[in-house]
Fold each of these.
Amino acid sequence: MTDVPRRGPRIAHVGIAVRALDEILPFYRDILGLPDVPLDDADGARIAGLAAGESLVELLEAESPDSPIGKFVAKRGPGIHHICFAVDDLDATLARCRAAGVRLIDETPRLGAEGKRIAFLHPGATAGVLVELTDP
Ligand code: CO
């Protein structure tokens, strides 16, 4: 494999919607061996954080059926919910999105589960993937 220089935005985490953390945590933590990373709950979801190199996997379990993850799982079942990119300049990136007509879910950044600023983009502008942006 050729050495591709790794630079630019990195994947901060992949959010996976699950029915029950207890059911799936043993696979990611014990079988794959991803170490636990304590995270705060956010957006009506209990979050189990797991390290995967410089990125995280966030297992997201709904605290109630009417939370965003609850609705997602009811409609589509468990699966990848969103991808979060850490960008060098969150405000400038959001400004570029706005200028390009990319619909923002969060018009201004707010605090996410890692205690950093985050903002979600609308999947209609990102090939159907719910994209979250965060500070480095
Ligand atoms: Co996230």
Amino acid sequence: MIKLIIINGPNLNLLGKREPNIYGSNTFTEFLDKVKEKYSNIVLEYYQSNIEGELITKLHEVGYSYDGIILNAAAYTHTSIGIGDAVKAINTPVVEVHISNTMSRETFRHQSYISTNAKGVILGFGLQSYELAIQSFIKE
Ligand code: DQA
């Protein structure tokens, strides 16, 4: 069974309440339950933290044994050399996802410290971005 993990960064625990015009009105748990049901033939774990170092520690923990990591580092995408280095250090392929199309937003969101070492990048499809990332691992 293939083993994937979704790792969400800061403020993504507020999905459903946070700027719903940009990030939608569904909570991540609601979405995750549906996706887990749909993809019952894979192991799909979930981790969220608002703390940069915790995200790095989680990448180290899973990055040598899981089949894939779906990473939305949220605002740290644009600032964290540490998370970028962790993505580079580990063996498990990372797909970078964003709910919004960061390229159509403020210029500070155009920079990513993750993309250079990601297997691929999916942005702008709402929560469906995560599902597309899952499919990218299944269809390998
Ligand atoms: C985000 C985009 C980031 O720029 C922002 O800081 C987020 C969410 C997204 O999923 O669209 O928190 O990663």
